Amino acid sequence: MVDRIWRVRLVALACVAGLLAVALGIRMLASGASVLDSSGALAQYSGTVLYAAMVYAGVFLVAPTARPLVAGGVAIAFCWLVELLQLTGWPAELSERSVLARLALGVEFDASDLFWYVAGVLPLAVVHHALVRPTSTQE
Predict the structure, then answer these.
(1) Long-range CB contacts (< 8 A, 24+ apart) of 35-43?
(2) What is the predicted pLDDT for the residue at 139?
């Protein structure tokens, strides 16, 4: 059981790192070298979807025994919370001081992001659920 937990955490960490690399790569290619430029639709929406996917994988770092659909719900709720926090101006304030805060918390509220978070998590959770659910072929 302990080996399985650490294996899940290592896979989740590898997924987070891979998704982050893809997201930053898309931003750099789409903007011409600036990781912080998300003015284009490709950089903005792909970044939102990949951010949500990273959060989904991150749930398994914290709770490696989580069920996929529960992890999906937690990931979407977390993403929505971060987006709604942007209405306070607090993330924008932190983003002025830190590039990491800007990438993790964003700057301003965008209602369409609420949809894109679901688009980034739901397919992963459904496919993950289908892959790990117990089969009913036990005799």
Answers:
(1) 35/99, 35/103, 36/99, 36/102, 36/103
(2) 43
b/e map 15-49, b = 16+ CB within 10 Å: bbeebbeebeebbeebbeeebeebeeeebbbbbbb
Q: What is the CA 4 to chain-centroid distance, rounded?
A: 23
| Cβ(113)–Cβ(91) below 8 Å | no
105-116 pLDDT per residue, tens: 988 899 999 999
Q: DSSP for 89-100?
A: THHHHHHHH-HH
Query: What pTM does this model have?
Result: 0.86
Mean pLDDT of successive 10-residue stretches along the chain, which has 139 residues = 89 93 84 66 87 96 95 98 94 90 88 96 95 64
Tokens found for residue 59: 């749930």
Q: The tokens 């789409």 sit on which residue?
A: 30
Phi, psi of 63 (to 5 degrees): -130, 80
